[in-house]
Amino acid sequence: MKATANKVERGGISLRVTAAAVLIPLNAASIVFGIIFVIKTDFTAFHNVFGAILLLTWAGNAFLVWLNSRAGMGSAAAKKIDLLGSVYLVAVIFAAAGMFAGSFLISSAYSEAFGENVAFYLLLYLSYFGTLALGLALALLSRRSLPAERGAGPAAQQPPARTAKNAVRFWGRVALFILLVLGFYLAYVLLFSSSVCREPLELLVSQLALFLALLFSSVVILLLKQYRGRRNRLAYNIIAAAGGALCLVFLLPLGAMPSAALKAERDFSVAFGEDWREKIEETAGQNFTGTCFSLPAYFLGYPSRDYSVVKDVPYYEGTRGVDEGISLYFDAYLPPGGEGEVLPGKSAVLIRIHGGGWVSGGKGLRNMMQMNKYFASRGYVVFDLQYGLSSLLEEGPGILGAPEHVIGPFTADDMIRHLGIFTRFLETHAADYGADLDAVFISGGSAGGHLATALTLALSSGAYPELVSPALTVRGVIPFYPGNRVNNLREIGGSPEWLDVEMLVDENSPPCLIYQGSHDGLVPPEVSYSYRDTCVAAGAAPCAVLLMPFGGHASDLGFTGYYNQLFTYYMERFMALYR
C-alpha cells in the first residue's frame, strides 16, 4: 500500500511539473500576443488561434492551482505556492468583471483617446495582463519548488489549528457558496430566459457567459481548496461535479458560435443571393473586418478608427400642444476628414434610434455608442437621435432613465412625427455634415427597432409626405430585436399602422437585416420572423433574420461580444451591398 501511495504521489508531482513547464511559455505567449493585439488591433482568422491559446492558458493555470492544492503542503515553499494559487483565482474573479467593464466604458465614451480614458484602459489591461503575469509566476514557482516538496506528506490535509484565521476561512467559504448559488441562477437565466424574462440579467448573461465561465471556474476551485482531505471527500466530489457542469453551461454560447456563423452565412445568402460577395466593390471589402468573430477582441476590446463627433445639436423645440416644453437633440458621428468618399460608407447616412420601451433611454451612452463610432470610421455619416418618450405607462423610465426634456404624454404617432421632423431637418442641413441623402440606412434596437422600421416604411411608401421628407432615399433598415406589437406599444397607443408596422409593408419596402436573440424574453423570435415573412409575401426587397443562439434581449450591449461581432460583420456587408 505504501509503495502504491508513493507511486501515486510521484505521478502527481510529474503531472504538476509537466503542467508548470507547459504553462510557462503559454502565459508568456499570451502576454506577448496581447501586447501585439493592443498595438495593432485587427480582426483576422489568425487571432482566433491566439484566442484559443489564451483560453487554454487560463484553463491550464486553474488546473495547476488545483494540482498544487492536492499536493502535500508541508514545506514553506509549497504553502507559498498554494497561497499564490488562491491569489490568482481571486484575481481572475475580479479580472473577469474588469475586462468587460473596461472595454464597455471605453466603447461608451465619445472619445476613445487613452489620455481621456486612462482609468478605463488601466482597468482593462491590468485585468488581462495581471492574470497572465500571476499565472506565469505561479508556473515558474511550481516548476522550481516541486523537487523540494517531495516527501512533505499530506500535512495540509490535517485539520487546521484553531486560530483567528478560522473565522476568515469560514466567511470566505460562505461568500464562495453564495457566489456559486448565484452562478446556478445565472445559468438558469441563460438556458431559460426565453420563457421567463429575467431582465436586466437576461440582458447581460448570454453575452457575458465566457467571462462567467472564467469567474465561476475560479470560485469552484477556491471551494475545492477549502474541502481538500479525506474527511470532506463527499462534499469535494459534489462541488467538483456541480461546478464543472456550471462552467460547461456558461461555455455553451461560445460553443454555439461556429454553427451560428454558418447559419448566418446561409441565411444571408438565401436572402441576398449566393453571389452577394461579388456585388460588393473590392475597395469596400478591404476596409471590412476580416472575420466574423475574434476571441482576443472579446477580451481586449476593439478601438474604433478615426472619426469625429458633433454633440447635442438641437433639431426641435416644442412650443405648443402635447409638445410644449420638449427639446430634442442629436449627435452626429462623422468620417475622418476628407475620407468619407473613399471609405466603404461613401458618406451614406445611418440613422440610429435608441430603445428603452418607448419610455426611457436616449442617445450617446444609452444607444450602443461604439456602433455609431465604428460606422463613422468606415465612412458613414451617423446620426444618433432623441425623440419624445411617453409618460403614459405607469412603470416610468426604469433603470435606463431618460432626460426630462424629452418626456411627455406621447403616443406612437407623436414619436413618428418627431422622427419625421428630424428628416426635414436633415433635408435642410445635409450639406453641413457631408451626408448623402440618396443612400440612407435606419437602425435601432427594441423600441428603436420598431420605430426604425416604422420610419423606414413611412419614407419608402411615399404615403406620408406630411410626416417625413421625400428627399431621403432609404436603402435598407436594420432593426435589432424590434419591439413590434409588444404590450407596452399597445398601451401607449397610436394609429394602427404604427402599432403593427407589418400593415405598411408593400412591394416598395426596402431590404432588411434583423438581429434577433433566440432566448429573448421581451421580443420573441417569432416577431422578427413574422416581419420577414410579411416582406416575402408582399414581394418586398429581401429580408434576413440572423439568430443569435442563447442571445437575450439587448445581447449586443458589448460591442465586441460574440453576438455583436457576428452581426456587425454582416451588417457592414449588407450596407455595402445596398449602398
The level-1 CATH class of the largest domain = Alpha Beta
How many separate domains? 2
> Which architecture name of the largest domain does CATH use?
3-Layer(aba) Sandwich
Rg (CA only): 27 Å
Tell me the structural class: alpha/beta
| The CATH superfamily title of the largest domain | Alpha/Beta hydrolase fold, catalytic domain
Return the CATH topology of the largest domain.
Answer: Rossmann fold
Quaternary organisation: single chain
Q: What share of the residues lie within helices?
A: 40-55%
Identify the overall geometry: elongated
What features would you describe in this structure?
By secondary structure, the protein is of the alpha/beta class. Helix content is 54%, strand content 11%. The protein is built from 17 helices and 10 strands. Strand 9 (512-517), helix 16 (525-538) and strand 10 form a beta-alpha-beta unit. The longest helix is centred in the N-terminal third of the chain and has 38 residues, at 2-39. It is elongated. Residues 1-11 and 146-158 have low confidence and may be disordered.
Q: Secondary structure elements and their pairing?
A:
Blueprint: H1 2-39, H2 46-70, H3 76-107, H4 118-145, H5 165-192, H6 201-226, H7 233-250, H8 252-272, H9 282-285, H10 295-300, E1 308-317, E2 327-334, E3 348-353, H11 369-377, E4 381-385, E5 389-390, E6 407-408, H12 412-433, E7 436-445, H13 447-461, E8 474-480, H14 487-492, H15 496-499, E9 512-517, H16 525-538, E10 543-548, H17 562-578
Parallel strand pairs: 3-4, 3-7, 5-6, 7-8, 8-9, 9-10
Antiparallel strand pairs: 1-2, 2-4
Helix pairs in contact: 1-2, 1-4, 2-3, 2-4, 2-6, 3-4, 3-6, 5-6, 5-7, 6-7, 8-17
